[in-house]
Amino acid sequence: ECNRGTMPRLILPTTLVRDSYLQGETETAIAEGLPTDWLEKAAADFAGFVAQRRAVRELWGVPVTELWFVEGTDYLGTVIVRHRLTPALERAGGHIGYHVVPGYRRRGHATQMLVQAKLVCLELGLSEILVTCPEDNLGSRRVIEANGGVLDRIIDGEALYWLATS
């Protein structure tokens, strides 16, 4: 175990985690019933894929920063930070989206990812952020509440929480 003693951290996408990223995202896609074909393109030119993912991109109609949660050369998950909200994101999605690779779930990683993502939002000048999840996703709700999330309301089965970033 060469990774003992290092704390997982949120970093910009990196080629250093190539193998575990491709494996982890394949596992995630299969577990969630999502397509995996994009991973073949990513594998074919991983350096180009990483360069694209390191840049601020426009998704959901807003600027987005993608960060990977990494421990040594192990990729554990992804955080997406949306720099601002649209009316649609105010109902579902919020400022932050994240997922943990199936093999690393239920170990506190999501809580730590959100801790670190709040600092990124603070650096972007966001003093308050919206984080949403399905009303019935109790694990996700516990992660948000552990990070100081205050339930604002529930709309169409989506729980909306506001969190201070500082």
Note down, in words, how this protein is organized.
Strands 1, 2, 3, 4 and 5 form a five-stranded antiparallel β-sheet that branches. The protein has helices at about 20-30, 35-45, 45-55, 85-90, 110-125, 140-145; strands spanning about 10, 55-60, 60-70, 75-80, 95-100, 130-135, 150-155, 160-165. The protein contains six helices and eight strands; from the N terminus they run βαααβββαβαβαββ. The protein has about 170 residues and is α+β, with helices and mostly antiparallel strands. The longest helix is centred in the first third of the chain and has 15 residues, at about 20-30. Helix 2 (about 35-45) crosses helix 3 (about 45-55). It is globular, with a radius of gyration of 16 Å.
Helices and strands, in N-to-C order?
EHHHEEEHEHEHEE
Helical run tally:
6
Number of β-strand runs? 8
Helical residue percent band: 25-40%
Please tell me how large the radius of gyration is.
16 Å
Low-confidence stretches: none
Based on secondary structure, the structural category is alpha+beta
Mean pLDDT: 96
Largest sheet: 5 strands, antiparallel
Question: What is the distance, rounded to the nearest whole angstrom, between the alpha carbons of the first and last residues?
Answer: 34 Å
The proportion of strand residues reads 25-35%
- Global geometry: globular
